[in-house]
Amino acid sequence: MQFHNKSGFTLIELSIVLVILGLIVGTLAPLFVSLSKRNKLSDGRQIVSTARDEIKGDIIRSRMVPANTNNIGHTVDPWQNNLVYIPAPNLSGQDLCTWLAGGVNQTGLAVCIDGDCTAGKKTNVAFIIASIGANFNRQMQVPVNLDGDGTDNEVRLYSYGTEIDQYTVAPDPNRPTDQFDDIVEYVTADELVQLFNCSISVSNESGQTGCNGGAAVLDGVRLGVLEFNQLMGIGSTVDNCVTIDNSCTVSYNAAQLADTDQDGEVRITSTPPACTLADL
User: Fold this and answer.
1) I need a surface site. Which of 64, 95, 131, 171 has the fewest CB within 10 A?
2) What distances in angstroms separate CA 280 from CA 75, 197, 268, one per listed residue?
3) Can you give the pTM of this predicted structure?
4) H or E segment at 45?
5) Which of 34, 127, 130 is nearest to 81 (CA)?
6) Which DSSP state fits 98?
């Protein structure tokens, strides 16, 4: 008599295994979903932060707040939505040093932290860059005058998770019960002007002695420093020094244009009246 040992699972055993697998999947699936959301949120914050720094770099090169994000590399968030960019209206197309020289120093844009436009108001914002977050719903409002101060418009910002939606522009959905998940970065004009030098040093590289303010300035020596929109007169016949008979005027704007590497230094390479500027 022969006996055959047939190994395998009974229906009860299979049922138990399936129940265990279901419990494992049911426990781990929410964890995986939570980790995925957390990773995307972290990626979104990194992209917005990188875009902010790229815009700052563009401003350092041009000394102007750009009108759009065409010159930066990060413009789309992890949810494949375009980043929201809001430049200050009073800085559009303006050289920041020239803007400072004007003396008004109002960018026209401010943010209100936690919606507080009194104690929480941050003025002279140069630009805002943001992602609308995972809910595909922009909740950050369009800049409006919220505090009665006509010199600027404000944008109210809220802590992550606050139930609010202040953006009502169609076709974006307006859902006031959505938790605020816009990822927002902003930079003030005060931060920007610390990144570059608005003064430009002018040196004599004409091969001759020049005159500035009645003092002789030898070849290879600094003639002076131009601040903002100042003018510098060089080589006038009324100078009480070894003079060049003609004179020229160097403007801050002309020196700025000549300063191609933006190191704050230019040279005069020809004698008056030409006074040709070069960035040597």
Assistant:
1) 171
2) 36, 18, 10
3) 0.68
4) helix 11-62
5) 130
6) H
Residue with tokens 């390479």: 269
pLDDT band at 174 (very low <50, low <70, confident <90, very high): very high
Q: What does the alpha-carbon distance between residue 172 and residue 192 come to, in Å, rounded to a whole number?
A: 32
- Tokens representing residue 29 in the block: 């699936």
Nearest to 253 by CA among 94, 27, 109: 94
pLDDT class of 75 with cuts at 50, 70, 90: very high
Dihedral angle computed from the Cα positions of residues 227, 233, 235 and 238, in that order, rounded to the nearest 10 degrees:
-130
Q: Retrieve residue 229's tokens.
A: 């929109």
Structure confidence at residue 237 (pLDDT): 57
Alpha helices, DSSP H, located in 127-210 = 189-193
* 143 cis-preceded (ω within 30 degrees of 0): no
Does residue 31 or residue 254 have the better pLDDT? 254
Q: Which of 115 and 4 is assigned the larger pLDDT?
A: 115
Q: Which tokens is 73 given?
A: 């590399």
Number of H helices, E strands in the chain: 4, 14
Note the pLDDT of residue 175: 94
